Amino acid sequence: MSVEEAGGFPVERFLFALALILITSKVFGELAERIKQPAVLGELVAGVVLGGSMLAVVPSLPGQAGYETFHLIAEVGVAILLFEIGLETNLRDLIRVGFNATLVAVVGVAIPFAAGFLSVLAFEKFGLLGNINPAFTTLVAITAGATLTATSVGITARVLSDMNRLQTEEARIVLGAAVIDDILGLIILAIVSGLIQAAKQGVHEGLNIAGVGIIALKAFGFLFVAIVVGNLLSKRLFDLINKMRVRGVLVLSALSFALIFAYIAKLVGLAPIVGAFTAGLVLARTNQFKIIETQLKPVADVFTPVFFIMVGAAVDVHVFNPFEPRNVPILLIALVLFVVAIAGKFVSGWVVFKEGIRKSVIGIGMIPRGEVGLIFANMGLSSGVFSSQLFSAVTVMVMLTTFVAPPLLKVAFSREEAAEGEVTEEVKP
Amino acid sequence: MSVEEAGGFPVERFLFALALILITSKVFGELAERIKQPAVLGELVAGVVLGGSMLAVVPSLPGQAGYETFHLIAEVGVAILLFEIGLETNLRDLIRVGFNATLVAVVGVAIPFAAGFLSVLAFEKFGLLGNINPAFTTLVAITAGATLTATSVGITARVLSDMNRLQTEEARIVLGAAVIDDILGLIILAIVSGLIQAAKQGVHEGLNIAGVGIIALKAFGFLFVAIVVGNLLSKRLFDLINKMRVRGVLVLSALSFALIFAYIAKLVGLAPIVGAFTAGLVLARTNQFKIIETQLKPVADVFTPVFFIMVGAAVDVHVFNPFEPRNVPILLIALVLFVVAIAGKFVSGWVVFKEGIRKSVIGIGMIPRGEVGLIFANMGLSSGVFSSQLFSAVTVMVMLTTFVAPPLLKVAFSREEAAEGEVTEEVKP
Fold it and tell me: What is the CB-side half-sphere exposure of residue B423 using CA atoms within 13 A?
């Protein structure tokens, strides 16, 4: 028996919420598959249902009781997912597509940025932005453009994994491009936050090029060192660990390895998932990687749904009500940004110089903005550059890109495969 | 890239802390086994090292940043552990030892309570309790006695599981007694908190017997309904679930089942672990229980160390410094309570009327007080019945019982087995 309560979020509510997360994500995932959609789409919808604007089983806003706990578990969940994806990815194949991946990433950052920038200037002309200081218009447009540059690879990776398509050339290019995109995003973030800082203080100092350079160097340095040193040590390390006697030592060591890589990635400014993915790439070359992969699966099954549920839970369904007058400009802006966001990433697939590549798969794979786009939006809001209207619109855009990518990706694969006469088959793991 | 922070506890710190929890608990567990001690003892020590009074990697006090998250994960961890134990326990065997288990539980509650009660009266005589209102002495003694009655089965279950001794008659009696002990604890809690309430309000109304009766009824009712209804439905339910196509659906359904049982147990006032254990008993009879058990193992390996680390982390090592004058009475009281706590539970093993039962194993198995004893202590402190000195002493007693049980249990098994000429062998899972 136990009468204590855990801070703000009681133990029993947590146990119940966790059970509901696991059950609804599986039920909705199953329903999604039955109507030929990726399971992850069902999980996202399950998140919307459990989230604050519907059942409120799961806290969906920072500051709500228990939010921190679910958020942290979700972060571990998506890190484990990318770790798994890394384990299934061959480093050499990834390096081989490096040039094309870089091209995709650069184009997929440049075009959405330019299109988003111009859209916001147009919104301002039509008075959709409401009251904003005209001196700030350029800054608003730059920040909004930046929210369109990010790629959140979690959704795409999950769909590719569910469809057993991780070993395709397209999957490799998307994964590689996502890693490079993260570094580009880091640089853009440094520049934009520097610009905001300068504008707020009224100083017009030039951009700190050296500072931006150091940030980029740290990010590339991490990837390089992690892969080189990781490859040198991991094989021997895991042969040693394999000699230990205590229960579960192998999978726990592998998981810790991934968590530490995620931690270091975050320290140098990259997303934790980039670190976890790198850890997976490195451990894919150990002698124990098959056992690790098998034992990691149930752990991932428990943690990763929390991530997708939390992404869905962040959606405020009330914003989509067009009969609420103040939603109209938000939805209009969101719709335009959404089209721009999709088109901008979609074209990035066409810069790949290679025969037989399904360019639409790559373009669509880069579409989801996920939590990375939200970070930019939050920066815009908290610095006062975004009005709450523009912030809502950007959030809606991010959500739409996240929800639209899985079904589009499935269609892109199926259509091209049907054309090639391949068999589209799903394998139950 | 990501710049946001999760409320008070940054994502990267969480990733790092989680990695350290997994690594140190395995390393210390391995070291413990090398010196012929149970791995869980090593994990507890790892918790002390990571806790607030040493490295402070893990928050160890309610209210500290991130504490809630670790606490909630720990609760899930111990629930999963007891769920696993339940899966390996045969319900019929458990019911067969029911009479002896009840005897053990009742004696293991009555003797420590009486001994604790008398000890506190003696402390008062010798002036060890400091300034307390003499009108409250009886109440203080009752509350202190209550802290000695609880049995926290997590530690013992883990040791038995690590030693592959869950299928022994002794293990069954200890598990059964722990469940009954939890119900007794619930009743005692209701009585004691009623007495405190009455004393604080100055009213001398009689004990609400009906209220206490309802509490007991609810607890027994839950166990009865959960087992009967669970047995009727679970087989068909899991045959149905097994037909679903999405990844990991079986282990997630089983885990959700356990979490929901834990939730309901908490609602009726029992410990979540009692609910999780019951869920395990029920699912042990499904056709899929072997797959569930195998796939659950890595999940348990990730979650349960968090529990043992948090138990260890709660230890404030500074209290053990005898050169600090104000620690002297605390340590004296703690030492006496500790001896009483051990002796009181130890004798409970001798009431089992059965040939060939290792009575010392049962007695020792009931010793750890764990978090259940701390709940009573917290109630004593927050209601003003305990001085902070007495609270510290009780906390130290609880910690000592938790740390001393694993090695004692191992000795008890080994000695009796050596006497019987059995082979003591550890199997690596």
Answer: 3
